[in-house]
Specification:
Helix content: 40-55%
Largest sheet: 4 strands, antiparallel
Strand order of the largest sheet: 1-4-2-3
Number of strands: 4
Number of helices: 6
CATH topology of the largest domain: GIY-YIG endonuclease
Order of helices and strands: EEEHHEHHHH
Radius of gyration: 20 Å
Shape: elongated
């Protein structure tokens, strides 16, 4: 499919606030800020996807008036390739910044084993903060080292 002919601004759309009215169909979807495409995604069920989408974390507390446009896709088998082509073509800000930590030379993967109880607490923390594990770990480590730095500064000034 020639993705250059797909214009997200001419597709059906709803405001983010009306996302509960989205159809329950396989689709490619676009998060729009006016005429600007912020994000492109794929789903087998558009309505279910938007009941708790990670992108909502980016806009919570924001004054942006965002909308969701969609391209219904009866052949769910082409969703991944179509999404990839649209991201390459449109280069939406949130897709380009999303998931690039793996390719970012300033980031490294961290892996290890922790007690189950600590893991449960960490998962609850991530749910409360509405972030994924990677974002949660980065947040926790930043907070920890910030506290450690503060303690060292206090010890120096004492």
């Amino acid at each position: 499919m020639n993705v250059k002919i797909i214009n997200p601004l001419k597709l059906p759309s709803l405001s983010l606030a009306s996302r509960k009215d989205l159809p329950g169909c396989p689709a490619i979807y676009f998060v729009l800020d006016g005429d600007y495409v912020l994000y492109v995604g794929k789903t087998n069920n558009l309505q279910q996807r938007w009941t708790a989408h990670q992108v909502l974390n980016r806009v919570s507390g924001s004054n942006k008036h965002l909308s969701i446009a969609w391209l219904k896709c009866d052949d769910a088998g082409i969703l991944s390739s179509l999404e990839k082509q649209l991201i390459e073509s449109l280069r939406p800000e949130w897709n380009i910044n999303k998931g690039t930590k793996k390719d970012d030379p300033d980031y490294v993967a961290l892996r290890g084993h922790i007690p189950k109880e600590l893991f449960k607490r960490f998962k609850m923390f991530c749910l409360e903060k509405e972030v994924d594990n990677s974002q949660g770990l980065e947040y926790v480590l930043q907070e920890y080292f910030s506290l450690e730095d503060s303690k060292k500064e206090e010890e120096k000034s004492a």
